[in-house]
Write a structure and sequence with these properties.
This protein is an alpha+beta fold. The protein has a domain of 191 residues: DD-peptidase/beta-lactamase superfamily (Beta-lactamase). It is 31% helix and 20% strand. It is built from 14 helices and 15 strands. The protein has an eight-stranded antiparallel sheet, with helices on both faces. It has a four-stranded antiparallel sheet with strand order 1-2-9-8. Strands 6-10-7 form a three-stranded antiparallel sheet.
Length: 390
């Protein structure tokens, strides 16, 4: 193992041998309940990923018609201590959090708390003039004109430091990062992906409901669905089963080329404190809980049919490689699997995908603890889903 100490902070960098040794560790697949399927073809997708990429730990789960039917894990969740991956381990969701935020909106819509097409100033009148006529639907569809990250937002060497290392004590403090910046487009005129747009959604939902956004996650999603691990990430909490977070050095060298990082497959991830982005990228959970969350969006009484239509009716056109958008969800069609609703996530120590295949009643979650890896992750949830289609 290699060690590097700069500025009093120690970063442990793992050799290629350590990473590939982790991938050679015995697979751990722990069934949850007595009705779990054995699916060697789905397991082979995970094995193929291990052969293709130096991912320390992988986990995946499938729910079919509302029941969890398969869940497995591979590799090591902690390279330093050699902890085998199990299905009980908790991974970051990254931007998959956005569809959880969409579910909160759907629930509040059912309760008459919000109107997706009302100006957000209805609920939060103190917003700057540029945002007052924007609607929640526009924000959910990335049509609010709110900017995404700028290089200095995430650069620890910038004069203000990285927002990932700061603690924002309220949504109001998080809004201050961007709320007074110029819009990049007039609301409703174009799709411009923005995690900050989801921070603004969380502020509006807080004002409309009278509850904090982290309380809304519990009240509207994790408690009614019985998903104990699905919730906001607290970097200070002791979370049983939380994985270690790793990244390819290239993730940081693209931003700060002068960093003295070794040319090896994985290093410890740079810290991330998600207090500015709970709604857009600050949640975690097991693959099983994420898959069961997805299943609840397609059927059952978690939301009404009216809210379900709001989630999954395309409101934008596919363009430039971006599928049509419903309420937070990306909506397209797979040649073999049919209609597909999906969202991916990518951040430090995380690559995640939740994909729904409503024609087959399938919800597939796939999660990695190596940032940006695998890149084309939807291809792999498609392959897993295909093994459950007769």
């Amino acid at each position: 193992m290699e060690y590097s100490q700069k500025g009093g902070v120690t970063r442990r960098a793992f050799s290629a041998g350590a990473v590939f040794g982790a991938l050679a560790a015995p697979a751990i697949a722990r069934a949850q309940g007595g009705n779990m399927a054995v699916n060697s073809h789905a397991a082979a997708v995970l094995e193929g990923l291990r052969e293709e990429f130096p991912i320390p730990a992988l986990t995946a789960a499938v729910a079919r018609d509302g029941d969890l039917v398969w869940s497995e894990a591979r590799g090591l969740v902690d390279l330093e201590n050699g902890v085998p991956a199990g299905t009980e381990h908790v991974f970051r969701l990254g931007s998959v959090a956005k569809v959880v935020t969409a579910a909160i909106g759907a629930r509040l819509l059912d309760q008459g708390v919000i109107d997706l097409d009302a100006p957000i100033s209805t609920y939060r009148p103190g917003l700057p003039e540029a945002h007052r006529a924007t609607t929640l639907r526009q924000l959910y569809n990335h049509q609010g004109g709110v900017r995404h990250y700028a290089p200095n937002d995430l650069n620890p060497l910038s004069p203000t430091g990285s927002i990932d290392t700061k603690i924002f004590l309220s949504t109001d403090e998080a809004l201050a990062i961007f709320i007074n910046d110029d819009l990049i487009a007039a609301p409703g005129t174009s799709v411009n992906y923005s995690t900050f747009g989801y921070t603004l959604i969380s502020a509006v939902l807080e004002s409309a409901s009278g509850a904090s956004f982290t309380d809304l996650i519990a009240r509207e999603v994790s408690v009614p669905l019985g998903l104990d691990t699905l919730g906001p990430e607290d970097p200070f909490a002791i979370v049983p089963g939380r994985v270690g977070f790793y990244d390819p050095p290239a993730m940081y060298l693209r931003l700060i080329p002068q960093l003295p990082l070794p040319n090896i497959p994985a290093i410890n991830a740079f810290p991330s404190t998600p207090t500015y982005k709970y709604a857009g990228g600050g949640m975690h959970g097991t693959a099983s809980d994420v898959a069961m969350f997805g299943a609840a969006q397609m059927a059952g009484n978690f939301i009404s049919e009216t809210a379900r239509q709001a989630l999954f009716t395309p409101r934008t056109e596919a363009s430039g490689g971006t599928p049509a958008l419903g309420l937070g969800w990306r909506i397209d069609h797979h040649d073999m699997l049919g209609q597909r609703y999906h969202h991916a996530g990518n951040m430090q120590g995380c690559r995640a995908q939740l994909a729904l295949y409503p024609e087959h009643g399938l919800s597939v979650a796939l999660m990695s603890n190596l940032g940006a890896t695998p890149g084309p992750i939807l291809n792999y949830t498609d392959r897993i889903a295909a093994t459950f289609v007769a």
